[in-house]
Write a structure and sequence with these properties.
The chain is an alpha/beta fold and 285 residues long. The protein has one domain (26-277): Ribonuclease Z/Hydroxyacylglutathione hydrolase-like (Metallo-beta-lactamase, Chain A), CATH 3.60.15.10. The protein contains 9 helices and 11 strands. The strands form 2 sheets. It has a 6-stranded mixed sheet. A 5-stranded mixed sheet has the order 7-8-9-10-11, covered by helices on one side. Strand 9 (209-215) and strand 10 (219-223) form a beta hairpin. It is globular and about 45 Å long. The N and C termini lie far apart (44 Å).
Length: 285
């Protein structure tokens, strides 16, 4: 019996070692942007926050994982590049948001800068279906598209109060119905090893999701999407665009709790200060 006990203990240690090895794979993650929006007054986006002018990065991530190349969010549609916004976005959006996107800012060119191509992307993880996050999924017809099932419903049939806002642009994804969608109902460990975990963070939209990476050197990286726009949201100010405000605040607390428990870092989608302090010429590892 003692021998069996020793064998079981050894097997248990091996399992832990294998799990640790799997979760600390050689992953590289680049934080880039599909141009910028603004300058805008933060108070116009977050009504309870003090007034200040800022420029908003339109964050995207490129993740080189041993099991496949990943893109998190695809930014503004290529059609708004180089001052052509008025030909594609709804009336008034270009004047209000002032996008600065150049053609070289679009996700396919960002991939090329790093030596990849759009055809190599295996997974596209879209935080939600707003125009500045889902804009270029058509560039990835062969990828597996990872989205919450509720967000797909929201994209195709948004409620009237959200459709009226103009932030869902059907032409961003009108020909993608037959794409390979991995439809989720909650958190999901993409590779089963804890290295890439999709986090269900509803509130901003019905099926919003964020992403957690586990990197060798950096540790836990939490990519918020629009669950957290900027520092004011971390400080308790409620974002101004929500499907459900209570769920938004619960999602913010969820991400903060993961950060604290895992000594991780939060990377917010539209925070100019954080983006300027981040690494962009080299990857997070």
């Amino acid at each position: 019996m003692k021998k069996w006990g020793l064998l079981i203990a050894v097997l248990g240690l091996l399992a832990v070692a294998c799990a640790a090895t799997a979760s600390a794979q050689d992953i590289k993650a680049w934080w880039t942007t599909s141009g910028f929006l603004g300058p805008v007054d933060v108070k116009g986006l977050i009504p309870s926050a003090p007034s200040r002018m800022t420029t908003l990065p339109v964050s995207m991530w490129i993740i080189d994982h041993p099991k496949g190349l990943i893109v998190f969010d695809t930014g503004n549609n290529v059609a708004i590049s180089d001052g052509k916004c008025d030909t594609y976005w709804p009336k008034g959006f270009c004047q209000n948001f002032k996008p600065s996107q150049k053609r070289d800012d679009v996700i396919d060119r960002q991939l090329q800068k790093l030596g990849y191509s759009a055809e190599q992307v295996k997974f596209v993880i879209t935080s939600h279906a707003h125009l500045d996050h889902i804009g270029n999924i058509k560039l990835f017809p062969k990828a597996t598209h990872v989205m919450q099932r509720r967000e797909l419903y929201q994209a195709w049939w948004p409620e009237k109060f959200q459709r009226a806002s103009g932030v869902f642009i059907l032409s961003d994804y009108d020909t993608t119905r037959d794409f390979d969608f991995l439809e989720l109902d909650g958190d999901y460990d993409l590779f089963g090893d804890g290295s890439v975990v999709v986090l269900d963070t509803p509130g901003h939209t019905m099926g919003h999701q964020s992403l957690k990476l586990r990197l060798k050197q950096t540790g836990t990286v939490i990519i918020t999407g629009d669950a957290i726009w900027m520092q004011e949201n971390l400080d308790g100010h409620v974002p101004g665009i929500n499907y459900n405000t209570a769920e938004t605040m619960r999602s913010i607390e969820k991400l903060k709790r993961i950060r604290d428990l895992e000594s991780g870092q939060i990377f917010m989608s539209h925070d100019e200060v954080s983006y300027n302090k981040g690494m962009h010429d080299s990857p997070y590892r």
